[in-house]
Amino acid sequence: MSVVAGVIAVQGDVSEHADAIKRAGDAKGESVEVREIRESGIVPDCDLLAMPGGESTTISRLVHSEGIADEIRGHVEAGKPLFATCAGLIVASSDAGDERVETLDLIDVTVERNAFGRQKDSFEAPLEVTGLADDEPFPAVFIRAPVIDDVGNAEVLASWDENPVAVRDGPVVGTSFHPELTPDGRVHELAFFENDGADVPTLE
Q1: pLDDT at 97
Q2: 102 in catalytic set
């Protein structure tokens, strides 16, 4: 029996997240089946969900128009893990600071879109992330990354330049950076298989 992982595939780094989830599963001895989600009806069958980066206004519009938004909320309400990265974090936030983005209100944070700079300002930074499998810094890739301006009830897992860049709110983990763009699978392991706030599935 496999753990079923869904990747919201309306836009963004879909295949990269799928590969990262499989690597994380392998590291934890879990067999993972990945399903790409572009329409309603698939999320309820998933044990894990990832919402990739991309363009937050587009992702927000499509998850609502395709009937996926309420299913994502139901997934989280059931205690199942959701991992939201970059634009996914913006959509999952409680306040995107942009009226064009209809957020899912799943992470109690306020964000500012693209605050770390434009595409040309992309950078990699070694992050100390609470809860990783070892103490080695994580090689975080920032591309047009949002800044987390305000943290409500969410737990800060990592910061860079005095700004929170990774947070956890119950079964939801959100990052400003793109962990799927590195071969290091530890943040995916943390979000899906070591998330203290989630009902993380294990195979018997």
Answers
A1: 85
A2: no
Catalytic residue among 75, 180, 188, 189: 180
Q: pLDDT, tens digit, for every residue of 78-108? A: 999 999 999 999 999 999 988 899 999 999 9
Write down the catalytic residue from 30, 71, 75, 86. 86
Q: Distance (Å, rounded) from C-alpha 16 to C-alpha 186?
A: 14
User: Which residue segments constitute the domains of the chain, with CATH numbers given?
Assistant: 3-193 (3.40.50.880)
- 85 within 8 A of 175, measured Cβ to Cβ: yes
Reply yes or no on whether 86 is catalytic.
yes
Question: Is residue 184 within 8 Å of residue 16, measured between CB atoms?
Answer: no
188 catalytic per annotation: no
Whether the pTM exceeds 0.90: the reply is yes
Q: pLDDT per residue over 112-133, tens digit each?
A: 875 555 554 578 999 999 999 7
User: What is the C-alpha to C-alpha distance for residues 24 and 29, in angstroms, rounded to an integer?
Assistant: 9
Distance between CA atoms of residues 30 and 136, nearest Å: 23
Q: Taking residues 159-188, what's their average pLDDT?
A: 94
From the candidates 178, 188, 194, 204, give the one annotated as an active-site residue.
Answer: 178
> Which alpha helices (H) appear in 33-173, and where do they start and end?
56-65, 69-77, 87-92
Contact 137, 127 (CB under 8 A): yes
